[in-house]
Structures are given as C-alpha cells and as structure tokens.
C-alpha cells in the first residue's frame, strides 16, 4: 500500500489519541472510587444489619416488660379481690386461706417487680445501643454518599476528557485517506495499536527491535510505502527522527 508520508505521520497523532481513549476507558473500569463505594456499601449493610438486630432485641425486651407488667397487674388484682373477700367473710378457715394466698401473692409480686426492674435496665442499655447503631448507620450512609459523589465527579471528568479526545479523533480521521484509515482501524481492532513511530530500529507499537533483514527492507522502502511490523502488524511510521 502507498500513502502520503504526511498522512502516515498523521497516524501517530491518531494513535496517541486512541491510546488516551483506551486509558480513559481503563480508568473508567478501574476507578478507585468504585472500590471505595463497594467498601462503603458493605459497611452500610453491616451497620444497618446491626441496627436491625439492636431494634429486634429492644422490641423483645419491651415485650418482656409488658408481659411482666401484665403479670404484676394480675397479681395485684388478685390481691385486691382477696382483701375484699377477707372484709366480707366471717369464716376463720377462709380468712386463714386468704391470708396465706396474700402472702404468696406478695412474694410473687416482689419477684416479678425485681425481674421487671432487671429487664427495664437491660432495655435502657439496649436503647443506648440502638441509638449508637443509628448514628453508625447515618455515618456509614454519609460515607457511601460521599464515595458515590466522588465517583460521579471522576466519571464526569473522564466523560469530559473523552469528549475532547473524540473531537480530536474526528478531526484527524477526516484528513486521512480511506484505505490507510481502514488498514489502521483493522490493525487496531485486531492488535490494540494500529501504528507506531519507527525509531532506533524499533517498532513504536510493540517496542521490539526489528531484525537486520527487516531493517534493510525498511531502509529500502519508498517514503510513501506503508511499512508494517513483522511482529505486531502495526504500521511503522517513519519520520526524520527515525534514524534511517
């Protein structure tokens, strides 16, 4: 293939732009902000799970307090009924039985109140734990939101850079012969790099030094010949700095 040397040299600018576009795409896929978001999401889930567990434990304690309160009310209601019966009965046997039951109920009431006090203390401590868990969730959510904001900002910067490079690419492509551009694009799609600067006996695309026979062929090639690397297939663009 033949192509004007100036057009071939234009491929070097195009290759630089394409390399930058590749770096932008790689950066987009490997943003450190993405890893930070993943870590923040995991932390937020853990803190939220801990908060749910703390709320569940508090609900269980609240139900236990309500159960004990209900039992205390039942005991006190029974005591009130027994006292009323003692006031209205004249049977010494019934009075003795009622008095014994009141003593039993009194012990039961004291035990229930002691249990309820212990559970209420645990409930108070659990309320504190839940408050701390809620604050931890708020902190984790704020950290996640900040990580997402940083990601969005980084992506916006990359999008802006990409738009500039695409505009540069469009301008460069417009000035290239169709057959040369098609060859470049085909090589780039297959090998990743379509062209490189030939300098110091090395291909600028794969960075490998060409052998003597290939070097002789490059030196003998006409200035408008399109020379390709035997190793990577890229177009080796020759300039006045190629050392030929």
List keywords for this structure.
Helix Hairpins, 244 residues, mainly alpha, 5 helices, two-stranded parallel ribbon
Would you summarize the structure shown here?
This protein has helices at residues 5-29, 32-88, 92-174, 178-191, 212-220, and strands at 195-197, 235-237.
Explain what the structure shows.
The chain is 77% helix and 2% strand. It is mainly alpha-helical and 244 residues long. The protein is rod-shaped. It has a two-stranded parallel sheet with strand order 1-2. The protein contains five helices and two strands; from the N terminus they run ααααβαβ. The chain has two domains: 5-25 and 177-237, no CATH class; 31-161, Helix Hairpins, CATH 1.10.287.1490.
Distance between the termini: 20 Å
Say how many strands there are: 2
* CATH architecture assignment of the largest domain: Orthogonal Bundle
Radius of gyration, Cα only, in angstroms?
42 Å
Number of domains: 2
Helix content: over 70%
CATH level-1 class of the largest domain: Mainly Alpha
Overall mean pLDDT: 94
CATH fold call of the largest domain: Helix Hairpins
The profile of the biggest β sheet is:
2 strands, parallel
Shape: rod-shaped
**Element string (H = helix, E = strand):** HHHHEHE
Number of helices: 5
Task: Assess the beta-strand content as a share of residues.
Answer: under 5%
Poorly predicted runs: none
What structural class do helix, strand and pairing data support?
mainly alpha
Biggest sheet strand order reads 1-2
What's the arrangement of secondary structure elements?
Elements (H helix, E strand, L loop, with lengths): L4 H25 L2 H57 L3 H83 L3 H14 L3 E3 L14 H9 L14 E3 L7
Parallel strand pairs: 1-2
């Amino acid at each position: 293939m033949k192509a004007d040397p100036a057009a071939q040299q234009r491929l070097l600018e195009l290759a630089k732009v394409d390399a930058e576009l590749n770096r932008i795409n790689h950066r987009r896929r490997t943003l450190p902000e993405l890893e930070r978001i993943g870590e923040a999401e995991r932390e937020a889930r853990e803190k939220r799970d801990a908060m749910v567990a703390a709320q569940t434990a508090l609900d269980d304690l609240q139900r236990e307090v309500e159960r004990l309160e209900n039992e205390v009310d039942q005991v006190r209601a029974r005591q009130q009924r027994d006292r009323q019966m003692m006031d209205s009965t004249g049977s010494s046997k019934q009075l003795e039985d009622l008095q014994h039951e009141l003593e039993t109920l009194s012990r039961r009431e004291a035990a229930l109140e002691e249990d309820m006090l212990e559970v209420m203390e645990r409930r108070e401590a659990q309320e504190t734990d839940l408050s701390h868990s809620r604050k931890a969730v708020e902190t984790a959510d704020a950290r996640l939101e900040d990580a997402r904001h940083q990601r969005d900002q980084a992506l916006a910067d990359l999008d802006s850079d990409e738009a500039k490079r695409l505009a540069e690419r469009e301008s460069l492509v417009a000035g290239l012969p169709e057959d040369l551009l098609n060859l470049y694009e085909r090589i780039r799609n297959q090998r990743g790099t379509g062209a490189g600067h030939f300098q110091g006996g090395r291909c600028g695309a794969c960075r490998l030094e060409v052998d003597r026979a290939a070097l002789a062929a490059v030196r003998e090639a006409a200035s408008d010949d399109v020379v390709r690397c035997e190793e990577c297939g890229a177009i080796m663009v020759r300039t006045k700095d190629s050392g030929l």
